[in-house]
Amino acid sequence: MDGVAARLASGVPARLVTGADDICAGLCPPAERHCERESVSARDERALAAAAAILGRPLAPGDELHLDRAYLSTMRAAFRTDSAAGRAPCFDCRWFDTCTDIAAGGFEEARL
Ligand code: SF4
Q1: Average pLDDT of the chain to the nearest whole number
Q2: Which of 5, 10, 24, 62 lies at a CB distance of 3.0 to 4.6 Å from 20, suitable for a disulfide?
């Protein structure tokens, strides 16, 4: 994960995908991939729509994003202050409280 964060920080873009990404696909056999369940696909679709609304442009699988300072600042501000868009994907996520705590701490321990 540190290596992935370092590559993203160096300017390598992140590509939007459906289902398991390159990290998860390498760690989980297909039968164990919870990210390919219907509930997760629905959450991913909400996240895609919310991110597009925050950025003010359409997004689709295959698009690439540079997770630079401006992007992170925009998305983190929305996450903290715009519950309609910033937290739209999150309501049924098991990590809700963890992500809320990270945001409340100003993302201090985030790797990017
Ligand atoms: S709570 Fe965190 S992990 Fe869950 S959908 Fe929201 S941002 Fe993603």
Answers
A1: 91
A2: 24
Predicted TM-score of the model (pTM): 0.86
Please tell me the total count of domains within the chain: 1
Going through the chain in order, the beta strands assigned E by DSSP cover: 14-15, 64-65
Going by pLDDT thresholds of 50, 70 and 90, the confidence category of residue 54 is very high
**Of the residues 37, 46, 83, 90, which should be mutated to test ligand 1's pocket, given the most ligand atoms within 8 Å of the CB?**
90
Q: 90 lies in which domain range?
A: 2-104
The answer to whether position 87 is within a domain reads: yes
Tokens read off for 50: 């919310």
Q: Which residues contact 33 (CB under 8 A, 6 or more apart)?
A: 19, 20, 24, 25
